[in-house]
Amino acid sequence: MAKSKNEVHDTGAESLENALTRTEQYIENNQKSLTVIVLAIIVIVGTFLGYRKLYIAPMEEEAQTQIFAAEQYFEKDSFNLALNGDGNYLGFIDIIDSYSPTKTGNLARYYAGISYRELGEYEEAIDHLKRFSPKDKMIGSVAYGAIADCYVELGKLEEAAKQYVKAAKYGENNFSSPIMLMKAGTVYEELGKFTEAVKAYETIKAEYPKSAEAREIEKFITRANMKL
After folding, report:
1. What is the pLDDT of residue 100?
2. What is the mean pLDDT of residues 159-164?
3. Do the beta carbons of residue 148 and residue 158 sit within 8 Å?
4. pLDDT average, residue stretch 179-186
5. Which residue among 64, 75, 90, 224 is least crowded, i.e. fewest CB within 10 A of its CB?
6. What span, in angstroms and rounded, lies between the C-alpha atoms of 8 and 27?
7. CA-CA distances (angstroms) from residue 6 to 11, 16, 215?
């Protein structure tokens, strides 16, 4: 026999009441444990906020002051001084060591990686660039592309091609993405992977038609297709 609406309502209300009773009973039986858990959460959150405000924030401010000279040397292509300092001001390596938890310390890894690449120390460059955590999509794309450049110099073309494609896809834009795809296509041709090369070139043509790389992309597509 079907239950009446009142019976259904009473059953639902009774179930809810029982659930609330069980919850209240659980809280009452575990009051000490729950209090400890809540206090632990408060302590953890408070410690984290205090760490950020009282420790990291002043360190960040100091790091920003310290990195200025190294950035100036970097802009002048004085990469050794940028990396190691000049005796009066810190270089990127010292800033990484002294201020690693900060955003500036992270940025110093990017600068260090590019500096080592320019000095021909490709393994060191890759190490620093891989440890760099990009916050800006454009800088991230350039960093991954720089890793690929180093792999090319080391003769590791498979890794280079993968990194160029990764760089092109990371924060896709009309400037760096077609550059990275063009480099990827060239490396794929070096590897004899002409299908992948055509795919990279076709992507430039389809997705970045107004880029500088797209102006003469047809001849690269034709060349790769002829080698298939």
Report:
1. 86
2. 97
3. no
4. 97
5. 75
6. 29
7. 9, 15, 77
Q: Does residue 78 sit in helix, strand or coil?
A: coil
**pLDDT bracket for residue 142 (50, 70, 90):** very high
SS3 90: coil
**Rounded Cα distance, 1 and 52, in Å:** 65
Alpha carbon distance 86, 106 (integer Å) = 21
What gap in Å lies between CA 199 and CA 181, rounded to an integer?
A: 9
The pTM of the full predicted model, rounded to 2 decimals, is 0.75
DSSP one-letter string for 107-154: HHHHHHHHHHHHTT-HHHHHHHHHH---SSHHHHHHHHHHHHHHHHHT
The residues, any chain, with a CB within 8 Å of residue 189's CB and separated by 6 or more, are 197, 223, 224, 227
Residues 134 and 117 sit within 8 Å (Cβ to Cβ): no
Is the pLDDT at 42 greater than 90? The verdict is: no
Distances (CA, A) of 113 to 5, 63, 72, 123, 188: 73, 18, 16, 9, 25
132-88-77 Cα angle (round to 5): 50
Helix axes 217-227, 176-191, angle to 10 degrees: 20
What are the sequence ranges of the domains in the chain?
43-133, 160-228
* Contact by Cβ (8 Å): 43, 52: no
Q: How many residues does the chain have?
A: 228
pLDDT tier at 31, thresholds 50, 70, 90: low
Class of domain 43-133: mainly alpha
